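Page 42, continued from yesterday. The earlier attempt failed because a stray header line got pasted into the input along with the sequence. Redoing it now with the clean sequence only.
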Amino acid sequence: MIQIIKKYKATIVLLALSLLCVYDLSRADSPDDIGLVFPKVIVGLLILTSVLLGFSTFFKSRKQSSDENTSTGFKMPWMILASMVGYILLLNVFGFFILTPFFVFSSAKLFGVKTKASIILAISLTLIIYLLFVKLLFVPFPSGISIFKRLNEMILY
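This time it went through. Structure tokens are written below.
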């Protein structure tokens, strides 16, 4: 039982968080309110993500031996954390639209995605974020400093 909890720790945490959000959304004053559409979509995506993570963990554990799992299991979270901290620290310097494709590409490569798929993922995710947040919702993003600011502005407009 403890091994199952260790193996599916992230899945259990995400499902618990999503159930907490579902409970919180059900207690809203008016459940038919248009303002609750976006939170409901996010909670639905969170549930979907946690279920997919559970399936992914299940199939990966069937394919890999325990020796391979423990050798890379310790380094991976620290590498991800270091890349996220680096991304956050460099975001105001390079700007969102220059740094994000590199971050997504390197994260995908870190997770073992092939190079061509990583490039497609990096470009498409940045484009989707741009269209959704900048064009549709008019949310400003960090544009960087000096020459990077001009490059970001050239990309945006």
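Notes: The helical segments are 2-7, 9-26, 37-63, 66-73, 75-94, 96-110, 115-136, 146-156.
Reminder to self: strip header lines before submitting.
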